[in-house]
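>> Question from a student workshop board

For tomorrow's exercise we were told to take the sequence and the ligand below, predict the bound structure, and bring the output to class. My setup keeps failing. Could a helper post the expected result so I can at least see what it should look like? The ligand is coenzyme A.
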Amino acid sequence: MIRVEDINVDNVEDVFKVCSYNKLEDPLQQSGITLKRQWLLGMLRKYGPCTKLAYYDDKPVAQILYYPESAAPFITNPREDVVFINCVYNPFPQARGKGAGTALINKILHECRDKLPILRGKPCRFIVAKPFNTGEGIPLDKFYRTNGFKQGQHEMFHEIAAEYIPRVMGEYRPLPEDRGRAVMFYDPTCEFSYPFAVHVKEFLQGIDTDLPVDLINSWLQPEESIRRGNQGLIVNATVIRSFWIEKEKFRNEVIQALDK
Ligand SMILES: CC(C)(COP(=O)(O)OP(=O)(O)OC[C@H]1O[C@@H](n2cnc3c(N)ncnc32)[C@H](O)[C@@H]1OP(=O)(O)O)[C@@H](O)C(=O)NCCC(=O)NCCS
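>> Workshop helper replied:
Here is what the output should look like for this input. Compare the format with yours to find the bug.
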């Protein structure tokens, strides 16, 4: 009943029938979808498929998105032959617990142990993942742990052909030009990222109507992300660490940053 397929030019729209199944008509989500479609097809041409889809009774129900760490232009010290798993997602409660998520992770583990097309057929040394929790289904950290991942520094990892090596993460040193403005990075690998950045911009300008807010695509302008230590949001030359979903905490952190 479960079938796994690599994405290709013919089935790429099925990715959005999974992740954006209830937002396909939303114009802002469509902007995120357009960015992700371009990214997926660009990666497909350059590296091969970076997403797998799981079909349950021929309906696309889950996806996994991954790429070689060395493909991310905003990472200055990538680990060679290391695969980064961005996310695994099955948004359909009625299709959960049927083995779709497990089939996807098993397939990628199998290819990593053998020959992964996106690593040009070279064996994968280890896989890394940064789980996040959307409050739906099984939290990703739990799912990864069940599937053999361990906790590393700032990330989870699964050793394949070599030992795990942590990566030194970037740091933000306040830039003079970041004073009196906000800089928010979005990522085309997730179609929710650009709409989310737009909502954060509106939220920030709800606090300070005159605040200039720049939204930057971290894959297209990686140098801007590198200069800011790969942080997601900078307000008045201060890194904002709380997540937008925790509205009050986020608002207080932004107000404190603006007061500096
Ligand atoms: C993790 C996730 C992908 C698993 O998808 P899935 O298709 O249900 O996976 P499986 O059917 O292979 O189930 C995985 C395990 O969870 C169990 N399970 C799945 N759904 C369950 C449920 N609703 N209640 C209890 N157990 C459940 C399965 O029995 C299985 O257990 P096992 O490994 O002991 O056999 C899914 O829960 C999910 O999308 N979670 C949210 C992740 C997220 O936030 N992603 C980022 C979004 S952008």
